[in-house]
Amino acid sequence: AVVSTQSTGAMVSLAGICSGYLFKKVSKYAAATAVVGYLAIQGASQAGYIKINWKKVNDQIEDLKEDLTDEISEIVSDEDTLILENEGRMKATARRAYEALKENAATSGSFTAGFAIGILFA
């Protein structure tokens, strides 16, 4: 069965509205859960139920900083190769994204508009 462009646009818009509505509702609950979890951990720490070994934390952070510094120095020393590789990947990714949007412009626009409406009215 052939589905008209208007029907497809309407279905995609409805899917966008539902997605936007759910996204906003779920993100509210996720943020509330993160805040409550943080407050619970802080309260337990203040009450003495949780002890943090700050020396170990600082040692691990220093180790990570050293590892990152070594990796960054390797990347910077090979700057020409890095720039050429990333430029090629970025162009290829941009081209694929453009082609996908060009082929599905109507449905992409309908979904995006629906998503925005769903977030607005959630």
Walk me through the structure.
- Helix content is 89%, strand content 0%.
- It is built from 4 helices and no strands.
- It has helices at 5-47, 54-77, 79-103, 105-121.
- Helix 1 crosses helix 4 (105-121).
What's the short version?
The chain is built from 4 helices and no strands.
Instruction: Kindly state the number of beta strands.
Output: 0
Q: What share of the residues lie within helices? A: over 70%
Measured between the Cα atoms of the first and last residue, the distance is 34 Å
Radius of gyration, Cα only, in angstroms?
24 Å
Sequence stretches where pLDDT stays below 50 over 5 or more residues: none
Q: Sheet bearing the most strands, described? A: none
Global structural class: mainly alpha
Integer average pLDDT: 81
What is the succession of H and E elements? HHHH
**Fraction of residues in β-strands:** under 5%
Q: Categorize the overall geometry.
A: flat
* SS field, number of helical segments: 4
